[in-house]
């Protein structure tokens, strides 16, 4: 594939004499596009975005109808209240039995004193002791029954609250937010349309920085590395060329054939390597715009 050497005549804003710049690579500016899709199913009751809008991260821009979810949540909240009303106050329920236990405990102590002074016989002490032990077993059995009953109810309540948390998550997903600071590139849906989960709603990108995907030949590749800086020349037409600073953030490990739309410096080479150069955008750079690259650490003879 035929390649050409691109010479750019740059008009310096300060009025200096223009000079010819030999580029080491050229490419196209790209953005990392994000497609925002519906996370919920239902009618889109609001979608306040238009192509070209600049949005801040976490801005609420749309809403999908969540009426049924709200009703389901209310029903579960009522079920929680009903279950909580069945919980038993164990201390209150055990209070009469505790009084009985204390009564027999005191009687055992009294009859021990009486037996010791020969004022009562051992059978009477044995009878009171048996009644005391029976009261203790009754308390233990009642406590066990009441505790297990409360555990069953608490597990029921916990299950209901988990369902409420799931519904809260779905309610949150029915609200549409901007995930990044960026500009809306394309709008795919409108209010009052029906959205399925995964339906694309709009596409946006962070354009504060753009990436120039350029292609270099093998001889250039050996002279650059990730982290190197470069001058980027963007052509705005009618001899209006602006210079930007960029930094290499990625270099392809595999060679590929030169893309038809990307000329390279070396006409003899068919195989090139893609590199990505991040450039801060001053508001004038656009996705799809061409740019020329001069790597700062390469000195042409």
Topology:
Layout lengths: L6 E4 L8 E4 L2 E6 L2 E5 L4 E6 L6 E2 L4 E5 L2 H19 L4 H27 L5 H52 L1 E3 L4 E6 L6 E2 L4 E6 L3 E8 L1 H4 L7 E7 L5 E11 L4 E2 L13 E10 L9 E6 L6
Antiparallel strand pairs: 1-2, 3-12, 3-17, 4-11, 5-7, 5-10, 6-9, 7-8, 9-11, 12-16, 13-14, 13-17, 14-16, 15-16
Task: Count the E strands.
Answer: 17
The ordered H/E elements are EEEEEEEHHHEEEEEHEEEEE
CATH superfamily of the largest domain: Efflux pump adaptor protein, beta barrel domain
Helix content: 25-40%
Number of domains: 3
For the record, the CATH class of the largest domain is: Mainly Beta
- N→C terminal distance: 26 Å
Low-pLDDT residue spans: 1-19
- Radius of gyration of CA atoms, rounded to a whole number: 40 Å
Number of helices: 4
Q: In words, what does this structure look like?
A:
The chain has 301 residues and is an alpha+beta fold. The chain folds into 3 domains: 7-31 and 207-295, Elongation Factor Tu (Ef-tu), domain 3, CATH 2.40.30; 37-65 and 174-202, OB fold (Dihydrolipoamide Acetyltransferase, E2P); 68-172. 34% of the residues lie in helices and 31% in strands. The protein is built from 4 helices and 17 strands. It has helices at 67-85, 90-116, 122-173, 218-221; strands spanning 7-10, 19-22, 25-30, 33-37, 42-47, 54-55, 60-64, 175-177, 182-187, 194-195, 200-205, 209-216, 229-235, 241-251, 256-257, 271-280, 290-295. A hairpin with an 8-residue loop joins strand 1 (7-10) and strand 2 (19-22). The two termini are 26 Å apart. The relative contact order is 0.23. Residues 1-19 have low confidence and may be disordered.
């Amino acid at each position: 594939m035929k390649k050409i050497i691109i010479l750019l005549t740059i008009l310096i804003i300060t009025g200096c004499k223009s000079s010819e710049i030999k580029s080491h690579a050229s490419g196209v500016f790209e953005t990392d596009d994000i497609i925002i899709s519906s996370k919920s199913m239902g009618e889109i009751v609001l979608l306040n975005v238009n192509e070209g809008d600049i949005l801040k991260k976490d801005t609420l821009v749309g809403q999908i109808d969540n009426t049924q979810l709200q009703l389901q949540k209310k029903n579960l909240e009522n079920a929680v209240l009903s279950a909580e009303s069945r919980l038993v106050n164990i201390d209150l329920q055990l209070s009469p039995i505790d009084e009985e236990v204390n009564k027999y405990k005191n009687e055992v102590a009294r009859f021990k004193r009486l037996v010791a002074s020969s004022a009562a016989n051992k059978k009477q002490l044995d009878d009171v002791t048996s009644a005391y032990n029976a009261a203790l077993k009754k308390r233990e059995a009642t406590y066990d029954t009441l505790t297990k009953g409360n555990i069953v109810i608490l597990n029921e309540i916990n299950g209901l609250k988990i369902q409420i948390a799931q519904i809260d998550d779905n309610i949150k997903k029915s609200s549409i937010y901007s995930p990044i600071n960026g500009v809306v590139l394309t709008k795919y849906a409108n209010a009052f349309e029906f959205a399925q989960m995964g339906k694309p709603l709009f596409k946006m990108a962070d354009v504060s920085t753009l990436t120039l995907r350029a292609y270099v030949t093998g001889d250039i590749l050996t002279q650059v590395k990730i982290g190197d800086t470069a001058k980027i020349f963007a052509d705005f037409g009618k001899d209006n060329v602006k210079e930007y600073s960029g930094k290499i953030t990625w270099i392809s490990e595999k060679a590929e054939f030169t893309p038809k739309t990307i000329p390279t410096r070396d006409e003899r080479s068919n195989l090139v390597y893609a590199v990505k150069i991040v450039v801060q955008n001053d508001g004038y750079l656009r996705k799809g715009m061409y740019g020329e690259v001069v790597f700062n650490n390469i000195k042409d003879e």
